[in-house]
Structure formats: structure tokens, C-alpha cells
Specification:
With 327 residues, this protein is of the alpha/beta class. It folds into two domains: 141 residues, Alpha-Beta Complex (Quinone Oxidoreductase, Chain A, domain 1); 140 residues, Rossmann fold (3-Layer(aba) Sandwich). Helices cover 29% and strands 25% of the residues. Strands 3, 4, 5, 6, 7, 14 and 15 form a seven-stranded mixed sheet that branches. Helix 2 packs across helix 3.
């Protein structure tokens, strides 16, 4: 019997409960998928806790997964039963053993890519592509700052930026995470609990600052990230792990002609051509080894609550994925 993790009210991880579901035949433009690996992301935790009120309740959370096409709806071209696909969606519903999915958001997986890797890397990798190649186009010779450099997005972002020829300054919370960040391409790592990262960035750049600061932490680092920018530097706030950024006076940007962006991936992949182009770029750097990623640590789908606890308590040393019982 197909199962899904249902969220009926916001709260702690215990709000995630497995339930039996009916999965209909695909309608026009749709695929029916048997899912084999499901990504677990901080976005899911924000939805479950109520920080993001973007999933109508009751509903099935989850925005990333991979699996096998079981059936194809009318009018669908380019996919057939048996195809291996992955996807990222703002429409939720990924925490399930089976589902119906718009064919327009499905990506055929390269032969070399395991489904477990796809479920671990698609959201993070597409986010990195957006940040490095579109929001601020990183070029050789630039210097950038990446907060949480040892995190899931951070590791991909640092590797890719270094591959593009940028000098990467990363921040990390411990010596162990600093080693992870260095292995991911950081030329310099600042231990933000022991060091003033603003002062260190100024020292490392001879007072100039960085061309771009990538900040997924939010509240605790926003002002410092702005102070780290060089003239005409770009602050990219793409998360709020420490809480939302307080109201911001735009005239503060005028001191150094800085710019500020708050990008959302789903706006960048809304058009099919853009999604395919971004995915092709990601698949290329992964296949070439310029960016290294590992399949996530696996838990059964029924243990979604445990996965959220591990993620939120910072006990997860690798990306997490959920596996349906028959995967």
C-alpha cells in the first residue's frame, strides 16, 4: 500500500506521521512515480515548524526526490515507463512512496547518477548553480565569502566557485567543519565562534572586502556580511538558519554602491528551458569531478521525524535521504 508522511498541524518532528494513501493514474501532462529516494532539507523543517506557511494542511511535505516512472499521462512526451527521474518542486508532496508529478518538472537522470545521489544533490546543486552563475556570476579572480561552508549547499558552492577560479573565504563553527570547508575548496576558513569574521575578511582581502557574500544564516550574520563587501559588492541572502533578517534600510547600500538579493530557486527553474540548462550545468561538473557529492545517509521513510531531529540538532554529518519500504 503506498504511504506518505502527512503533516496535519505544525510543530515539532513528532507531527510527521506515516499514513496510507491512494495514488491516482496520471492525468494529462503528468507522470506517476514510484519514488526510490527522497531528499531531506532544512526547508522541510521550516515548513513543519510553521516558520514557512507555504504547505496547505493537511499536506505531504518534501520538495526533492528521485524514482522510476510507472505510468505516463496523455500528452506527455520525452518520458516512458521505466525511466529514472529526479525533481525539485515548490508544490511539495515528496515524502511519499508513490506520487503523481507534472512531467514539466521531471529531469531524466544521467546513466551514471544513482537515484540516491540525485535525491541528495539536486536541490543543493541547482541552488549553487543559481547563486554562482545567475544571481552573481562568479568569475576567475574574484573573492567571495560563503557562510556555513561545510553545510550541504556550502560544500557544493565552495567547490564550484573554486573551480571557476574564485578565491573562497568560508566560515565554519568548529575545527572539524573547517577541515570539511578546506576540502571543499576554501582558500581560507574563519572559525566564526572564535574570530570576528568581518575583521578576518578585511585582513584576508587587505581591506578591500569581497565581491560577493553568500549568506544562508540570516539574522546573526547579515550586518557582518554587508560590512564584508567590497565597493559594488553583492550580498546574496538565501536562507535564514538563525532567523529572519530584520527590516532593512535600503540606503545602507549606498555607502559602497552595494547590491542585495534574496533569490528563491523555484523562480529560476519555473521555465522548462531554464531548468534543463541549469541541470545540465550541474550534471556536467559532477560528472567531471569538479564538484564532488555523496549519496545521503539513508533512513526509512517512516522515520522522517528522526531525520528532522538529526538535521535540526546538527547531528547529521552528511545529507539525509528517506527510503520508501520497497525502494
Amino acid at each position: 500500500m503506498p504511504q506518505a508522511i502527512m503533516l496535519r498541524e505544525v510543530g515539532g518532528p513528532a507531527m510527521l506521521r506515516a499514513e496510507s494513501i491512494d495514488v491516482p493514474a496520471p492525468g494529462p501532462g503528468e507522470l506517476r512515480i514510484r519514488q526510490t529516494a527522497i531528499g531531506v532539507n532544512f526547508h522541510d523543517c521550516y515548513v513543519r515548524s510553521g516558520l514557512y506557511r507555504t504547505l496547505p494542511l493537511p499536506g505531504v511535505p518534501g520538495i526533492e526526490a528521485a524514482g522510476i516512472v510507472e505510468a505516463v499521462g496523455a500528452g506527455v512526451t520525452g518520458f516512458a515507463a521505466g525511466d529514472r527521474i529526479g525533481y525539485v518542486t515548490g508544490g511539495y508532496g515528496a515524502y511519499a512512496s508513490h506520487r503523481v508529478l507534472p512531467a514539466a518538472i521531471a529531469l531524466r537522470l544521467p546513466d551514471w547518477m544513482p537515484e540516491r545521489l540525485a535525491a541528495s544533490v539536486l536541490l543543493k546543486g541547482l541552488t549553487a548553480e543559481m547563486l554562482l552563475r545567475q544571481v552573481h556570476r562568479v568569475q576567475a579572480g574574484q573573492t567571495i565569502l560563503v557562510h556555513a561552508a561545510a553545510g550541504g549547499v556550502g560544500r557544493i558552492l565552495c567547490q564550484w566557485a573554486a573551480h571557476l577560479g574564485a578565491t573562497v573565504i568560508g566560515t565554519a563553527g568548529s575545527a572539524a567543519k573547517a577541515e570539511v570547508a578546506r576540502a571543499a575548496g576554501c582558500a581560507h576558513v574563519v572559525l566564526y565562534r572564535d574570530q570576528d569574521f568581518v575583521a578576518e575578511v578585511r585582513r584576508l582581502t587587505d581591506g578591500r572586502g569581497v565581491d560577493a557574500a553568500y549568506d544562508s544564516v540570516g539574522h546573526d550574520t547579515f550586518d557582518g556580511s554587508l560590512d564584508c563587501l567590497a565597493p559594488r559588492g553583492h550580498l546574496v541572502n538565501f536562507g535564514q538558519a538563525s532567523g529572519p533578517v530584520p527590516p532593512f534600510q535600503v540606503q545602507r547600500l549606498a555607502a559602497k554602491s552595494n547590491s542585495l538579493t534574496r533569490p528563491i530557486l523555484f523562480h529560476y527553474i519555473a521555465e522548462r528551458a531554464a531548468l534543463e540548462r541549469m541541470a545540465a550545468a550541474l550534471f556536467a561538473v559532477l560528472e567531471a569531478g569538479a564538484v564532488r557529492a555523496e549519496p545521503g545517509a539513508a533512513l526509512p521513510l517512516a522515520e522522517a521525524a528522526r531525520a528532522h531531529h538529526l538535521l535540526e540538532s546538527r547531528q547529521a554529518e552528511a545529507p539525509l535521504i528517506l527510503l520508501p519500504q520497497d525502494a
